[in-house]
Write a structure and sequence with these properties.
The chain contains 14 helices and twelve strands. With 420 residues, it is an alpha/beta fold. It has one domain: TIM Barrel, CATH 3.20.20. The strands form three sheets. The chain has an eight-stranded parallel sheet with strand order 3-2-1-12-9-8-6-4. A two-stranded antiparallel ribbon has the order 5-7. The chain has a two-stranded antiparallel sheet with strand order 10-11. Strand 8, helix 8 and strand 9 form a beta-alpha-beta unit. Helix 5 packs parallel to helix 6 and helix 11 packs antiparallel against helix 12. The structure holds L-rhamnitol and zinc ion (ZN). The site of zinc ion has 5 residues, from loops.
Length: 420
């Protein structure tokens, strides 16, 4: 049998099975195609960026590996991202960091402006995708001692405040150009290796810096601010200035969004449990979907239990209240594959979540029928959701899972490996 008709027939069979539970897969796929996933540009080149000066991550994050073929220029990165668009269905967005600017001569980070991102904006417009943005508070001489916005050195602090302001201007520009709000995520690496004696002062300085950066108001139609909390990082094992409590309170008080990165908590702590609590008090959440292995290691997102929990809670709480971003950078495997695997896994998990008979399950739970809830939830795990996702791929003209490896290998051979 031809692959295409096998997929179509499997979908019809799957539909019958889901309809038995009162679920309509056609509607699920319609909803799925409207949930944007923001792809992190930095997986494409190991967080190097295109500044003509310093480099490296520093500050508690680390890309390891030297798999050949990484994008060396913005054009190559766009080329790879365009290939990714052929491999993934749905509404893709692209998330840039400030170090991915394009300029003929070096530009200081406190002087970057929309013009340095004009090519990105034009590209996104042509491709019909939205852009998100991130100030880059790491990999820079001014961040060498591990402090930026919470630095006790006024010159350093001022430098980074200016950077934050520049980045908000650029985000606003993206939003205006593309007609979809640009989510700007603020993450700083600030923290102490050893036990500090004045955590309060460092956090107080961070509040002051953020207040200044966020002082100028931009319309929600063009840009949205988010702040990303973290527990620890390499070299800042004892105290992270921008902790969960810090940013949760800051976000609530200042009306900015909170970012939850799945790698930024204790190893057994899951962000999926946090969404509902936060959404009772705040409008939206930015997610950084990642995979911590023993620590915030930023491994490629796989199809594991926590990913499913995240997707379930996104759907159950209303996907329109989430901005889903990916955040990992593995330099030991093909970077296009890394993107595609993580993106498709997130989407598969969302697909599975959308196929949940939520009314039935909620009713059982309210009525105390926990036996029924467990029976249905366990059966759902092995329902033919995969046939539904394959059909989604087919309908959107992208490879199904079984076709994916060959497509990646072909691109690797023709394009990426020629870059050495
Ligand atoms: C670091 C944060 C942050 C970065 C990116 C590159 O721990 O997760 O989001 O990964 O900005
Ligand atoms: Zn993150």
């Amino acid at each position: 049998m031809h692959l295409e008709s096998a997929i179509e027939q499997s979908y019809e069979l799957a539909k019958t099975r889901y309809q038995e539970l009162g679920v309509n897969p056609d509607e699920a796929l319609e909803a799925l195609s409207n949930i944007p996933i923001s792809v992190q540009c930095w997986q494409g080149d190991d967080v190097c960026g295109f500044e003509k000066t310093s480099g490296g991550t520093g500050g508690g994050i680390l890309a390891t590996g030297n798999y050949p073929g990484k994008a060396r220029t913005a054009d190559e990165l766009r080329q790879d991202a365009e290939k990714l668009m052929e491999l993934v269905p749905g509404k893709m967005r692209f998330s840039l960091h400030a170090i991915y600017l394009e300029a003929d001569t070096p530009v200081k980070r406190d002087e970057i402006a929309p013009e340095h991102f004009a090519k990105w904006a034009a590209w996104a417009k042509e491709k019909g995708i939205g852009l998100d943005f991130n100030p880059t508070y790491f990999g820079h001489p001014m961040a060498a001692d591990g402090f930026t916005l919470s630095s006790a050195n006024e010159d350093v602090r001022r430098f980074w405040i200016e950077h934050g302001k520049c980045c908000r201007r650029i985000s606003d520009y993206f939003g205006r150009e593309l007609g979809t709000p640009c989510v700007m995520n603020t993450w700083i690496p600030d923290g102490f290796k050893d036990t500090p004696v004045n955590r309060f002062a460092a956090r107080e300085r961070l509040v002051k810096s953020l207040d200044e950066i966020f002082e100028e108001k931009y319309p929600a139609e063009t840009m949205l601010d988010a702040v990303e909390c973290k527990l620890f990082g390499i070299g800042l094992e004892s105290c992270t200035v921008g902790s969960h409590e810090f940013y949760m309170n800051y976000a609530k008080e200042h009306g900015v969004m909170l970012t939850l990165d799945s790698g930024h908590f204790h190893p057994t702590e899951q962000i999926s449990d946090k969404f509902s609590s936060i959404l009772l008090f705040m409008k939206e959440i930015l997610l950084h979907v990642s995979r911590p292995v023993r620590w915030d290691s930023d491994h490629v997102v796989v199809f594991d239990d926590e990913l499913q929990n995240i997707a379930n809670e996104v759907i159950r709480n209303g996907a329109e209240r989430f901005h889903i971003g990916m955040d990992y950078f593995d330099a030991t495997i093909n970077r296009l594959a890394a993107w595609a695997i993580g993106y498709r896994n997130i989407q598969k998990a969302l697909c599975k979540a959308l196929l949940e008979p939520s009314d039935m399950l909620r009713k059982m739970e309210t009525e105390g029928d926990y036996t029924g809830r467990l029976l249905v939830c366990e059966e759902l795990k092995a329902m033919p959701w995969q046939a539904v996702y394959d059909y989604f791929c087919l309908r959107n003209g992208v490879p199904t899972g079984s076709e994916l490896p060959a497509v990646v290998r072909d691109y690797e051979k023709r394009v990426q490996l020629k870059r050495i």
